[in-house]
Structure formats: structure tokens, C-alpha cells
Amino acid sequence: MAVxxxxxxxxxxxxxxRIMTNADxxxxxxxxxxxxIERTGIKRRHIxxxxxxxxxxxxxAARQALVRAGVDPVDIxxxxxxxxxxxxxxxxxxxxxQSGLGITKGAAFDLQAVCSGFxxxxxxxxxxxxxxxxxxxxxxGAETFSRILDWSDRGTCVLFGDGAGAxxxxxxxxxxxxxxxxxxxxxxxxxxxxxxxxxxxxxxxSTKTTGHLRMNGREVFRHxxxxxxxxxxxxxxMSGFAxxxxxxxxxxxxNKRILDGIAKKLGVSPEKxxxxxxxxxxTSAASIPLALNQAFEEHRVAEGNLVxxxxxxxxxxxxxxxxxx
Length: 325
Fold this sequence. Notes:
4-stranded mixed sheet, alpha/beta, 13 strands
């Protein structure tokens, strides 16, 4: 029986030119290269220049994805930007990306699920495409997290960086079996009881300020391993695939210890896991497409491969997407 699947046509990424190493951060707060690497696995991160906006990063990543997909911007009819650091309160950063690319039809909107944003964005676009409302979607994860960091808090400022990644999705008819290309299963979860473990202490509706990121790292770590492992298992069960059948795992790049913990819990070989954390840091909603782009450029993913993407972010929100390349 024929079904509509959302097939990944192209992937792209953009990182700001400015690089901040652990040594650079050690000149700002009481920390060291050894301390950061031991606890996080991060060696450096990219930081947006003054005047370089989240939409600028998203547009650059989207352009590369469109070129690789062989798709003209005018043929895109849905733009979703996953971001927790929009250019403005409104309009949506997605609308600015839409305009910057010369897209004038369809719809564009932002989606806010913090680090889970790109997974949420893929799932949302997939449902629109399967329903027949749109034909081609551009899903962007773009962040300038450096602008909401408290640079005196060494527990958070060492973790995050800026960047953007994007994929082009196209609705295509498939056979409806295990060999289909495209998104095969999605699973999204949230639990607002844990809001105070990872949040920003400001907002236009509360403090009238942007605020800074705050995190209880120990508790976030504990929940992350449990919740991400669980949602991966649920997604595999939905799709009928076993963990060892997945060719490539592309996780949200939060902390190396979290990634190692999930791999151990699921029995996944480290060779199957894409890690960009050491050079990008945690780029929130941008981290999965940035990692996916690196896997593409390193020829670690090929047509027919099963790719599983997963993330957890503030809220808590978490989720996973399984796709065949």
C-alpha cells in the first residue's frame, strides 16, 4: 500500500567564524581546559559576531541544504525554524529566513522546544507533508545561545555555542514497508514538572528582560540518560527495528557523559554515534542538524541507511525521529 513519506533531500550547516576555546573561557571565569574536557568533552565552540543574527545563521545553513538538495527556494512551501534565541519576540525568525531566501508562498513559523526543537520541527513538518498540506519543507535549527549565557557562571557558560543546521524534506510516495526512505517514526514527549531544572530566568511576559540560562546540571544529567534512552526504545518499537539495525545515531550534543551513558544503556557501539561536541559545544536546536551535516560530509551516511536522531531540552521536552536516508 503506497504511503507518503517525508524524504530528506539535503542537509546544510553554518558555524560563525569566531571560535572560543576553553583557554579563552578560562580567562573569563575560574575554570580550565582540563576541567571542561573532563566534565563535558568540549574543547571549543563558535560564537556569533555582534550584528550576526540567528536568522543570518539559519539562512546560510538553509542555502547549503537547498543547493545539495537541488531544490530552488521558490519550491519550498513550509519553513520551520526551531530556536530558543529568536532575532525578535516577533515576527518569527522563520519568516525572516523565508524572506532572506526569496520564498513567498506557503507558511513559516518558529517552534520552541529548546534543545529538542529540531526533533519537534522534523515531526511537525512530517505531519504536514503526510497530510498533503505542503510538498517541500525546510526545517532549520538555529541558535545564538551565547547571548543568553551568564558568563560568570562556569557551570553553564562553558557548555554552549552558536550555529545553525537545516534539512530539506520532500513528500514522496513510498511502498509503505520497512525499506521506505524518509521519516519512518517520530516520538515526542514533555513534562513541565521539571521546568525549574533548566530554564531562562527572564522573558517579555514576566521580567520584561531576556534573562540568562540557569541549570541544575546534576539533575539534568540524571533525567537525560533515562528519558532519552526511553524515547529511543519507544521509537524503535513503533518502527519495528532493533537498536543494532540502526546505521547511525545522531544525538543532541549536550555532554559527552550523557552520550556515553545512553550508548551504554542501549548497548550501542560508539562507532555508530556522531559526536561533534568537542568542536561545537551544545548548540541547542542546531546541534542535531550540525552533527547530521558533519556525518554527511564525512561520508558516514549513505542512501538506505537508518538514522536515529534524539534530544532532550528544557521543559523538559524530549523526542526521537527515525529516518531512512
